[in-house]
Predict the 3D structure of the following.
Amino acid sequence: MEEDKEGEEEHFRFINEKGVDDISLEIFYKPHTITLLTVSICGLLYLAFTQDDQIQEANIWRGFCCVIFFFLVISVLAFPNGPFTRPHPAIWRMVFGLSVCYFMLLLFVLFQNRRDVRRMLEWIYPNLQNQTLTEKDYAVNCSDITLSRLWSCIDVFAFAHFTGWAMKALLIRHYGILWTISIMWEITEIVFMHLLPNFAECWWDSLILDVLVCNGLGIWIGMAICKKLEMRNYHWESIKDIHSTTGKIRRAVLQFTPATWTHVRWLDPNSGYMRFVAVTMLIFIWQLAELNTFFLKHIFEIPPPHQLNWIRLALISSVSAPTIRQFYVYVTDTRCKRVGTQCWMFCAITFTEAIICLKFGRELFQQTEMTYVFSWLIIQMVSSCLCVYLCVVYARRCWKGIHTIVRTCKIFEDTTDKCEYESSEPSTPVKQVKNGSQPNLSSARNHSSQSKGSQSYYLRKRKDQVVNGH
């Protein structure tokens, strides 16, 4: 029993505070706590006695920035790495620290009133003063479907839309879940367009430009990148072993790429009901996080191009990467009994933002058609469950196809090509690769007299032990 608990703790530390393998430059991975403390205190001493403290607003702003700075320093020293270590664990510790700061800020805002929150925003961003929210009206003259009209709709927001879906594909890596979120979001816009005017769109804008072009193309490109990264063999050479300047620069740039790329399998033929519920909750929470973006912007009257919206989106995007990874391990790995800290923080942020929207948008939500909201909730749950069910059915059919290919491989095992099982997941399709130099060719030698010039297929057995939950 104690060994099982120790194993669970060790596995949780792996997903919550992953260590760095094969450290080549130890100077970047040593603690340097005394150096950091000395530099921080010296900088604090210099700023405390050299800045002009006669302007109240400047004093408050400098004090606020100093608090954030030292909180990030503490984050680097005390917070966990999370599931990622590239480009450096300190980056992901600061991301977690920023998410904690944002959560604390949301809790503070929750106990204010809308007028005071707006005044705080105007104090931080003076350009928000006397500025009203002007939304672009997309549902105008929908019968005018021309090439120039379609081209005029391709703006910076369309590019951001496309980029966002490519990033979602890189994080989730599942066509069924991605397309469900894409289609359900269009239904969400229809349900809430009586509250948010910019949700009203022409049918061709919603179906063609959004679903097919921006969403579809972003999903396809993101999944193509995932497939390419999955096919690579990752062997990282130490920068000290590289002698050319160009090679050192290239290796330094590659430090900002993933150390490994694991094929994910959200659903397989043996998925239990808890995984079914967990994936359904993933779709719902993702929709809620997207909806918070538009309601916060509308309630506090922040123009769409304003930098405050982009800062929040950048923070949420950075936090969502380790969140999805930790949630995936929690859902698919039976040895993981606790959800990761970054995943917990993301859920807390999402629900707190929703509570803020409900509190400060009372007048807005008084106009809500409750029939639409209840219908939206029912459609969300039914569509999510249906998507997950169809994905399980598809995985089972793929698994049956694998068994058929395995039997075929056993029949033709006297050839020179080998049928190789590339994934650690049981429902992943088998891929044939040229590999004539594989060892253990006794079968081919025994049958060489029967078919000399023919090719053989060989199935590499997957390990019974699950490695790192995948």
